[in-house]
Here is the input.
Amino acid sequence: MLEARDLACLRGERVVFAGLSFRLEPGGALLLVGANGAGKSTLLRLLAGLLRPEAGALLWDGADALADRAAHAARIRYLSHQDALKPALTARENLHFFAQLWGGEVAAALDALDLLPLAELPARVLSSGQKRRLALARLGLSDPARRAPLWLLDEPTVGLDAASVGKLGALLARHRAAGGMVLAATHLPLPMPGAGELRL
Amino acid sequence: MALLARELRLALRHPADTLAAVLFFVLVAALFPFGVGPAPETLARLAPGALLAAALLAALLPLDRLFGADAEDGTLDQLLLSGLAPPAVALAKAAAHWLTTGLPLLLATPVAAAMLNLPVEAWGAAMAALGLAAGFLSLLGTAGAALTLGARRGGVLLPLLVLPLAIPAVIFGAAGIEAAASGLEARPYLLLLAALLAAALPLAPLAAGAALRVE
Here is the structure.
C-alpha cells in the first residue's frame, strides 16, 4: 500500500504543491488531473524517487519508501513524458535491453500492444503513437516472481488511437487484477474503471 | 554488462561519432608539421606532447553527449530506476567511451606518430601511453559529464573541468614516449600512468554516480 502524507515540493523558489495526502490500496488506481503546470509530472517523479520531497513522507506498507532508493526503484515502473527509446535500435532491441534488467518476455510484451509486426523496425521510423506504444510495452516486461506493483504513468495515451487505448486498458486491468496499483496523470479519459481522482 | 552491450551496439549504428574523433586526432597531429615547419628533429622533439594533447582533445569530443542524449530522451530516468547502481551505470558508460573512442584512437596512433616523425621504436610506448591516458580521461570525463549534466553551457564547462585534472596523464605519458624515443626504459612512466588509472577506476564512477543521483 502506498501512502503520501503532506507531501510538498519546491521548484526553485516556487511551491508546486504542498500538503498533499492520499492512499492507494493494492488493485487501486488514481487519476491525477489538473491544469498544465499544476505539478502532475513533478508528483510522479517524486513518487518514483527521482526528486526529493521538500516536506512530508511517502510510505510503502507503513515504512519510509524513499529510505532505500534501490528497493523503491524495484517496486515501480515509471513511464515518463519522453518515450526513452533509442532511435537507432529496433523495437525489439529497445525492449530487449530492459528485459535483460527486469526479466520477462519481449515477444509477449510487444504483442500486448500489437507491436509484433513492427518489431524489426528501427524506432527512428515509428510514428509518435507507435513510439508511445513501444514505451508502454515496457510495462508488460517483468519477471512474474518479482512484479513491480506500482505503475506511474505520465500521459500514457498521448498520440494513441482508440484500438491502442483499448489494449492499454487490458494491460492496466490485468495489472490491477494481480494486485498492482496505477497512478496516472492525464488530460484524456483513461480506461480505468473505479479509479479515484486526485486534483492538483 | 547489458548496458555496455547496448552502448556498443548504438556506437556501431552511429559510426560517425567515433570516426569524427579519430579524424580530429589525425588532423590535429597533421597541423603540427605545418605550424612548426617540417624539420624532422623539431617534430620528433614535439611529437610525444603533441600526440598526448591531440588524443585527449579528440577523446573529449563525444563526452558531452555521454549522458546528454540519455537525459533528453528519458533513458537516464529509466536507467536510474532500472535497479542498476548509479556508479555501475557510470562505469559502463566510461568503458563504452574507452572502447568506442580510446581504442580507435589507439589504432590511429601510428598514422599520427608517422606524421610527427616519432621514431618507430617509440610507437609501442606511444600506443600504450595513449591507451592508458585515454582510459584515465574516459573515467574523469564520465564524472565531468555527470556533473555538468543539465548545466546550460555543459559542453564548454566539461573540458574546463576535466582537462586540468588530466595534466598528470599528459606529463607521464609524454615522458614515457620521450624515454622510449631516446632509447630509455618507458616502463616506469607507463606504470605511473597505470597507477593514475587504477586510482580513478573506483573514484570516478562513484563521483559520477553521486552526481547523477543529485540531478
Remarks:
- Chain B has a mean pLDDT of 90.
- Residues 139 and 151 of chain B are 20 Å apart (CA to CA).
- Chain B has ten helices and no strands.
